[in-house]
Design goal:
The protein is of the alpha+beta class and 338 residues long. The protein has five helices and 22 strands. Strands 1, 16, 17, 18, 21 and 22 form a six-stranded mixed beta sheet that branches. The chain has a six-stranded antiparallel β-barrel with strand order 2-10-13-12-11-14. β19 (296-299) and β20 form a beta hairpin. The protein is rod-shaped. The protein starts with 5 loop residues before the first helix and ends with a strand.
Length: 338
């Protein structure tokens, strides 16, 4: 009988070695403990699996703005005579915030008042003439008011766009008026979130102006009916009921918007899932030994510390090993820390 050649023996040895390695590191099945390794106990900590629903929320950032923030414009051309309230000063609704030169409209108002008074005292004045003079008086009063714009609501004069003695044309901006007491946060969310955020949803707000120390509460008051053409996301307006110290118009903040709980599922700690040959699995303690269980998981965006079990033999009550992986092998004896 002819003996195998040396090259044939070497090739057979290589093939046997490759097969041994392939079996030892087969995906989803780590090396097994045997002999003394199988009897020496490893101290581990376990966590029993329970199907549960997760509380969810979405975080969205945006800029705080005043719900009432207007720019007052000159409705008539003229020279700015006075700006009674300085920048940063408070104005009450109806307070004059600017005065344009009103010499001519003031004279016309005085003339209209005299004509209306004389006609009213004359018993021979026809009713139609009295009505015409009264209308002329109202027009003169309105024209004077257009030269003296007033604050439409209580607020703060944020900025003057003109100076005293400056001549302005009709339509020129005069000043910005802001009500800092009623603030809102405008954020954008993805399409799949919109249906889960009804009007009136309470949210928490975290400001970043003071290193995130500020914050407050808010309530969803409007959800856009269509997406922004540029971002393809939907804008959500949140009225701030308790703005906190750091939330002011123009400041950046983040809203934590609660979502309905997820459907019940089995979750494992992400740190307890191990990778073997490209697949993932966990060690489960059963009858004092570590048992390697392959499973398919998916990430949980709302909880980056967890994985959702999608497929595999894991079930309620399984005691997943979450700590003590040093020297842990499939079939290794373990001692559970109490």
């Amino acid at each position: 009988m002819r003996k195998p050649s040396r090259s044939t023996l070497i090739a057979a040895a290589i093939v046997a070695g490759v097969l041994a390695l392939a079996l030892a590191f087969a995906p989803g099945r780590p090396a097994q403990a045997s002999g003394e390794e199988g009897s020496a106990r490893v101290r581990v900590r376990v966590e029993a699996l329970v199907a549960r629903s997760l509380a969810r929320e979405v975080r969205a950032g945006g800029f705080v703005r005043a719900r009432r923030d207007v720019t007052l414009f000159a409705e008539r051309a003229g020279r700015v005579v006075d700006l009674p309230i300085p920048e940063g000063g408070r104005a009450r609704a109806g307070d004059l915030v600017a005065r344009l030169d009103a010499t001519i409209p003031r004279a016309r108002l005085a003339e209209a008042r005299v004509a209306a008074r004389e006609a009213a005292l004359n018993p021979d004045t026809a009713a139609a003439e009295l009505a015409r003079l009264d209308a002329a008086l109202r027009v003169a009063e309105h024209e004077l008011a257009l030269h003296q714009p007033a604050a439409p609501f209580d607020g703060v004069v944020e900025k003057h766009h003109v100076d005293r003695h400056e001549f302005v044309a009709a339509g020129h901006p005069l000043l910005d008026l802001v009500d800092p007491r009623e603030l809102e946060l405008l954020v954008e969310v993805d399409a799949e979130i919109v249906a889960a955020v009804p009007l009136g949803t309470d949210v928490s707000i975290q400001g970043l102006a003071d290193g995130g120390a500020g914050g407050g509460r808010g309530r969803v008051t409007r959800v856009a009916g269509r997406a922004e053409s540029r971002t393809h996301r939907f804008s959500v307006e949140i009225a701030l009921s308790d703005p906190g110290a750091s939330l002011r118009p123009g400041s950046y903040a983040e809203a934590s918007i609660p979502l309905p709980p997820s459907a019940p599922a089995v979750y494992v700690q992400k740190a307890s899932a191990r990778r073997e040959g490209g697949d993932r699995g966990v060690f489960v303690e059963r009858e004092g030994r570590a048992n390697w269980i392959w499973a398919r998981f998916e990430e949980v965006p709302a909880r980056p510390d967890l994985l959702r079990v999608v497929d595999g033999p894991l079930r309620d009550g399984d005691r997943v090993i979450v700590a003590g992986f040093q020297g842990l092998l499939d079939g290794r004896a373990v001692e559970v820390e109490q």
